[in-house]
């Protein structure tokens, strides 16, 4: 074992004109979350506890698209989803369609530990949350004025917006015609802007135990009931005795490629190291999709890969390495 390691992400795909102020805000949040995780790991907190702790912090801050500040559905409401996985015994929990649960990742963990199931969604998940006594808030808590404005732009453009926080000036070309001319598509349909901001964390602790967690509000102007990759074990999240992975990006492409599980599979069956496995799946499993992922191995390695122009990310290892970045 090579000691503990942690990686966090705030989404793959970044507007090249993203204001410097926004970039610095993102880096500060990622750095804060890294320090939170580092402190826990130095206190010998298990990996599964650390990923939950860090993702809760990301859900509480409205900067990225999870928890408070989540993207809005076409109906102007929030439907959140999350998953968590503990590598040693491949235990997992996932939730979708949450509208009142303040921290979806913690409900996902309760599904894993306090129910006979792996996945609960919509009214069933909300009822389970009430039974478990988790903190509930009104749906309006998750909605920000900025999101409301971006939903309006998305509806005017008649398209899905991935990065709903790009300043309005950067969306002047977002019209129905502009969307039709976009070279970016999802399942054959044009989109205007590519910059999802799902959050995730992967950790290996000093005992070599890997864990992963992912949380998101999904796509701005998505259809009510849409489920992406983030709550799907093996697609957006995966952990086993070898590694832990959290993905972000075009959910439909990640689902088709079972991206997270494939990293572990090529490590196991091809004998690739962590970075080699990450590079392989990003190149070979996404087809024309756009996405990225972070990963840790039981040997204390960290890795990331993405085929977008950038990914909000941060890493730290027990030997003192620490890095926070956005661009390639």
From TrEMBL:
<feature type="site" description="Cleavage; by autolysis">
    <location>
        <begin position="197"/>
        <end position="198"/>
    </location>
</feature>
<keyword id="KW-0378">Hydrolase</keyword>
<dbReference type="InterPro" id="IPR029055">
    <property type="entry name" value="Ntn_hydrolases_N"/>
</dbReference>
<keyword id="KW-0068">Autocatalytic cleavage</keyword>
<dbReference type="GO" id="GO:0008798">
    <property type="term" value="F:beta-aspartyl-peptidase activity"/>
</dbReference>
<dbReference type="InterPro" id="IPR000246">
    <property type="entry name" value="Peptidase_T2"/>
</dbReference>
<feature type="active site" description="Nucleophile">
    <location>
        <position position="198"/>
    </location>
</feature>
<dbReference type="Pfam" id="PF01112">
    <property type="entry name" value="Asparaginase_2"/>
</dbReference>
<feature type="binding site">
    <location>
        <begin position="226"/>
        <end position="229"/>
    </location>
    <ligand>
        <name>substrate</name>
    </ligand>
</feature>
<comment type="subunit">
    <text>Heterotetramer of two alpha and two beta chains arranged as a dimer of alpha/beta heterodimers.</text>
</comment>
<dbReference type="GO" id="GO:0004067">
    <property type="term" value="F:asparaginase activity"/>
</dbReference>
<protein>
    <recommendedName>
        <fullName>beta-aspartyl-peptidase</fullName>
        <ecNumber>3.4.19.5</ecNumber>
    </recommendedName>
</protein>
<keyword id="KW-0645">Protease</keyword>
<dbReference type="GO" id="GO:0006508">
    <property type="term" value="P:proteolysis"/>
</dbReference>
<feature type="binding site">
    <location>
        <begin position="248"/>
        <end position="251"/>
    </location>
    <ligand>
        <name>substrate</name>
    </ligand>
</feature>
């Amino acid at each position: 074992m090579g000691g503990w390691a942690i990686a966090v992400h705030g989404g793959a795909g970044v507007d090249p004109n993203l204001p410097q102020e926004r970039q610095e805000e993102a880096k500060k949040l990622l750095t804060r979350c890294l320090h939170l995780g580092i402190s826990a790991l130095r206190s010998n907190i298990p990996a599964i506890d650390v990923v939950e702790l860090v993702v809760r912090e990301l859900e509480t801050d409205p900067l990225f698209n999870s928890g408070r500040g989540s993207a809005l559905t076409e109906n102007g409401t929030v439907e959140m989803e999350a998953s968590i996985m503990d590598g040693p015994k491949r235990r997992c929990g996932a939730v979708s369609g949450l509208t009142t649960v303040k921290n979806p990742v913690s409900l996902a963990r309760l599904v894993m530990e306090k129910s006979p199931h792996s996945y609960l969604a919509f009214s069933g998940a909300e009822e389970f949350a009430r039974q478990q006594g988790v903190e509930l808030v009104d749906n309006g808590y998750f909605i920000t004025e900025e999101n409301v404005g971006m939903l309006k732009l998305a509806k005017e453009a008649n398209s899905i917006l991935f990065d709903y926080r790009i300043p309005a000036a950067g969306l002047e070309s977002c019209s129905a015609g502009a969307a039709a001319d976009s070279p970016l598509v999802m399942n054959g349909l044009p989109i205007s802007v590519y910059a999802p901001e799902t959050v995730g964390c992967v950790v290996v602790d000093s005992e070599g135990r890997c864990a992963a967690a992912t949380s998101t509000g999904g796509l701005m102007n998505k259809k009510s009931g849409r489920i992406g990759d983030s709550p799907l074990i093996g697609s957006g999240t995966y952990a086993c005795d070898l590694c832990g992975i959290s993905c972000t990006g075009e959910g439909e492409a990640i689902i088709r490629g079972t991206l997270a599980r494939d990293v572990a599979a090529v490590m196991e069956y091809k004998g690739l190291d962590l970075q080699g496995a990450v590079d392989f799946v990003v190149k070979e499993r996404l087809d024309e999709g756009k996405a990225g992922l972070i990963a840790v191995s039981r040997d204390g390695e960290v890795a990331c890969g993405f085929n977008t122009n950038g990914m909000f990310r941060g890493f730290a290892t027990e030997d003192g390495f620490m890095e926070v970045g956005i661009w390639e």
